[in-house]
Structure prediction request, 422 residues.
Amino acid sequence: MKKFVFSLLAFAVIVPMAFLMTGCGGNGGGTPPEPTQLNAPINLRIENNKLSWNAVENTNGYSVALQIDGANGLLPIHPQPIAITNTPYIRTCELAFKLHGMGFNLYGIDPFERTFYIRVLAIGDGINYSSSAASDRIEAPSKFPLVTPTLSIENDDLLTWSVIPFATVYTVYKNGVEWQTTPAHPALDLSSEKFAVGNYEFTVRASRPTLLPSGISNSVEIQVAQLQSPQSVNISNDGRTITWSPVKDASNYAVYVNGVRHTNQVVDAGVTTYIFSASNMNLRTLGTYDIQIRAFGNHITRVESELSPVASLVIEQLATPQNLSVGVNAITPNETESTLYDADITITWDSVQNAHLYRIRLIHSNGNNIATINHDLRIDGEELSTVLHLQQQGVVTVEITALSWDGTRFRDSAVSTTQFTI
Prediction:
């Protein structure tokens, strides 16, 4: 007796469905005056997701139909009979469903709360044999596996996959381990993830509590690499400007002082210069500081670099002005105030390298501050000529301080003093 087999691969999720099959043997027969009805297939059984039945003599093929519990009539799984060949050595057929994307809901059927049955009919040639009655029914499996998703990745940071009918949850696996679950939305954004250096393989599976989960999808892979550390770090003489070589795929850079990130400022990609300003320098203590640069990636597949080689920034005090002296040129009564004296004096000192300007204070021996003068920088030697208005004669102390530019690596000098008598 011949035996026919077909596969039950997810057939209860999608109808109509097409068949892939191997041929089955069949016999011809005489031509009776009236067609003889074929026997109905018997011994329907499901083993390992395959439906089998005993072959029927003289048939041209079979029709496999679906019956729903509580409903009249049959739903053909395929509108055309399953053809067979005349090959005498083929004694069974194996049929596999191929999904066409039309769900049961198009028939008004709830696939999760109804019982389904399968029945098979033998098809006659219409001349000698007429088609059989439907076979006894066999209950289909109570749960069906969901269709396996097809996974892809966009720009190495967006996982997307095919929408699976009836799926309520998708589970994403990273390197074979369950990683994240997402509701029935076929995408997962990776752009905010922080991955260590290495290769990562992702797969996805669809599931629904009332159905069997799908198979594991195809895999996609991303490779996460570390950026190269910035090189050629250089600090200008005044300490205000730090430069370095650009790093491929960097989105921004940060400056580190003694291994600690310096403020929250970042330097955008394409810019490889950092300017210390009065507001961000904040390195007031004299001494040597290690300056390094770190590059940050423009994508999840680019991990921040190691710190660059060290460049030393020396915070030092300006030299104290030397050879401070005061010359009194003349002392005369004030022309408008008879109680005042006008002292015409000249103050000189040696210029200080890297000074921005000088602050000069003149203090009378009685404790009164006579004047505070900010003197612009000159290149070769310093000289200030001024006239002081004094209420009384006495000793005048001169204090001078070399001042640094804000934000540079230099700090104001110590005070140099001298005195003169009026």
In short: Confidence is low (pLDDT under 50) at residues 1-27, 76-110. The chain has no helices and 36 strands.
